[in-house]
Automatic annotation (TrEMBL):
The keyword Oxidoreductase applies. PROSITE patterns: RHODANESE_3. It comes from Devosia yakushimensis. It is an enzyme of class 1 (oxidoreductase). Its EC number is 1.14.-.-. This is tRNA uridine(34) hydroxylase. Keywords: Oxidoreductase, tRNA processing. It comes from the Bacteria. Belongs to the TrhO family. Residues 121-215 form the Rhodanese domain.
Length: 326
């Protein structure tokens, strides 16, 4: 379960040990961030345990009704993807370092995925991607402005230098799952922008909801897990990660002479220290691969086919459950 909600949680320090105890007592693992402005994170456990956690957060005695309406996404994994349970206290659930941005008090207008195309095709709407440059590089909406940021905290500088409330009367924003653009919308409102819109559920909800033939999203959406990227229908994309610098790689990147599988890529071609560590890691992986029969010949193809089918079934189960929870 992935969850976020901007809510007034001034007692987050008191909530931390109670939430950790609740999760650990049910075998739930992952990371949840608590801050005075709300909750954010991803956890995994049995279906019964996750259902219990969802109920506890939405109507339990500790949180009351403060997390009602949280943005929640369910997915299914074949094995536990996390090593331990962590409940962390932070100043913000998504770091912008702008106290004037408070989505619990003021936020832009939510736009449902099925209404998004009509909004962003209007000539009087400025469309802004609030994600970082490496995410935008894999895919974005047509006509969207790229702030070219390395981190979300730099978004404030982009607003200061590229957007003007006197000129840009209507601004629409989007991000991966909705949390960054929700906070960005609050920030723009605090700076005097009149009409601010943001995509509810983010790109992921759009790709899950809008038919591909109607889509205005070009490319793939970067995700912060082992899939690296997803396309329409949330099907796993083509992107991979550079194991040296963790930058997402397109097929063009992998065709570049600077790309060496598991060792280097065009984005870190000058960093020899990273390459040395990555080369040793790749060597160990290759040795381990040679010891496994499932990595060779027909066995490898059969294993890949089974994995692909299992992934498809998990994705379909996730879509059905998310549809039932909406």
């Amino acid at each position: 379960m992935a969850i976020y909600k901007f809510a007034d949680l001034p007692d987050c320090a008191e909530l931390q040990p109670r939430l950790a105890k609740f999760c650990c007592g049910r075998g739930i693992k992952g990371t949840l961030i608590l801050a005075p402005e709300g909750i954010n994170g991803t956890v995994a456990g049995t279906e019964q345990a996750i259902d219990a956690l969802a109920d506890y957060l939405s109507a339990g005695p500790d949180f009351g009704s403060r997390l009602v309406g949280a943005e929640i996404k369910f997915s299914i994994a074949s094995a536990m993807p996390f090593l331990r349970m962590k409940v962390r206290l932070k100043p913000e659930i998504v770091t912008l370092r702008a106290p004037e941005a408070n989505p619990a008090k003021a936020v832009g207008t939510y736009v449902e995925p099925e209404d998004w195309n009509g909004l962003i095709e209007r000539n009087d709407v400025v469309l802004v991607d609030t994600r970082n440059d490496y995410e935008v590089g894999l895919g974005t909406f047509q006509r969207a402005l790229d702030p070219a940021t390395k981190s979300f905290t730099e978004f404030k500088d982009y607003v200061e230098t590229h957007l003007d409330p006197a000129r840009d009367k209507k601004v629409a924003m989007f991000c991966t799952g909705g949390i960054r653009c929700e906070k960005a919308s609050s920030y723009l409102l605090s700076k005097g922008f009149e009409e601010v819109f943001h995509l509810k559920g983010g790109i992921l909800k759009y790709l899950e909801t809008v038919p591909q033939e109607q889509s205005r999203f070009a490319g793939e959406c970067f995700v912060f897990d082992e899939r690296v990227s997803v396309g329409h229908g949330l099907v796993e994309g083509d992107a991979t990660l550079c194991r040296a610098c963790r930058h997402p790689l397109t097929s063009a990147d992998r065709a570049d002479p600077a790309y060496v599988e598991g060792v280097s890529c065009p984005h870190c071609s000058g960093d020899s220290a990273k390459h040395q560590a990555a080369a040793e890691r790749q060597k160990q992986m290759e040795l381990a691969s040679k010891r496994g029969a499932a990595h060779m010949g027909d066995d490898a193809a059969a294993a890949a086919a089974r994995a692909k089918e299992q992934k498809r079934q998990r994705a379909e189960a996730s879509r059905q459950r998310n549809a039932g929870s909406s």
